[in-house]
């Protein structure tokens, strides 16, 4: 009886640890390929160039969105806790607004932050993003973790990245 009980516990533990998170409809497990036009407007960065080894957060934002600004402000304050996470902040706004956002939060001083324009409206088409902030979190293997829609605390974001 004791062996049966122990076997059931082992099976329960193994089955819980092997479950994969369900993928939202239309989203692949792997980080999708798309292009971000960087602030200098001549350089286009393709997500296939993102190396494995660090978690990735795709942060779709609106420069005039108060929730995006609040989240970015808190993220910048605690950026030392996210040194090993790559952030890609993308928007459909014009470059004047992108530059203003970069200046406001001094994002250019963080090597793990890339800021640019979603020139092909990728987020609207692929993620069906209904608004912003909209975050797609991927693990260090560039595999899907979770979607976060709306304002979220930095502690909650940290838990998703670390889970």
Walkthrough of the structure:
This is Thioredoxin family protein. It comes from Chitinophaga rhizophila. By secondary structure, this protein is of the alpha/beta class. It has a single domain, classed as Glutaredoxin. The protein is built from five helices and seven strands, in the order αβββαβαβαββα. It has a seven-stranded mixed sheet with strand order 2-1-5-4-3-6-7, covered by helices on one side. The longest helix has 16 residues. It is globular and about 40 Å long. It starts with a helix and ends with a helix. About 11% of the residues have low confidence.
Short précis:
With 163 residues, the protein is an alpha/beta fold.
Topology:
Elements: H1 2-17, E1 35-38, E2 44-46, E3 56-60, H2 66-77, E4 86-91, H3 95-105, E5 113-117, H4 122-127, E6 134-138, E7 144-149, H5 154-162
Descriptive tags:
Thioredoxin family protein; alpha/beta; 21% strand; Thioredoxin-like_sf; Glutaredoxin; 7 strands; 7-stranded mixed beta sheet; Thioredoxin_domain; Thioredoxin-like_fold; 163 residues
Q: Rg to the nearest angstrom? A: 18 Å
Q: Mind describing the biggest β-sheet?
A: 7 strands, mixed
Domain module tally: 1
CATH superfamily, by name, is Glutaredoxin
Shape annotation:
globular
Poorly predicted ranges: 4-21
- CATH topology tier name: Glutaredoxin
Distance between the termini: 35 Å
Roughly what percent helix?
25-40%
Secondary structure tally, helices: 5
Counting helices, strands and paired strands, the structural category is alpha/beta
Strand content: 15-25%
Pfam families: Thioredoxin_2
Protein name: Thioredoxin family protein
Organism: Chitinophaga rhizophila
Domain Thioredoxin: 25-163
């Amino acid at each position: 009886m004791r062996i049966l009980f122990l076997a059931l516990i082992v099976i329960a533990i193994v089955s819980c640890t092997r479950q994969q998170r369900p993928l939202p409809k239309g989203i692949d497990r792997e980080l999708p390929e798309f292009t971000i036009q960087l602030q200098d407007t001549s350089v286009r960065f393709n997500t296939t160039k993102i190396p494995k080894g660090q978690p990735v957060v795709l942060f779709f934002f609106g420069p005039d969105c108060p929730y995006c600004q609040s989240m970015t402000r808190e993220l910048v304050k605690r950026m030392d806790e996210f040194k090993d996470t790559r952030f890609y902040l993308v928007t459909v706004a014009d470059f004047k607004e992108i530059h203003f956002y970069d200046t406001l939060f001094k994002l250019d001083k963080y090597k793990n932050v890339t800021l640019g324009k979603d020139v092909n409206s990728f987020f609207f088409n692929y993620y069906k993003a209904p608004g912003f902030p909209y975050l797609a979190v991927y693990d260090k293997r560039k595999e899907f973790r979770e979607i976060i829609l709306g304002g979220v605390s930095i502690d909650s974001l940290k838990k998703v990245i670390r889970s």
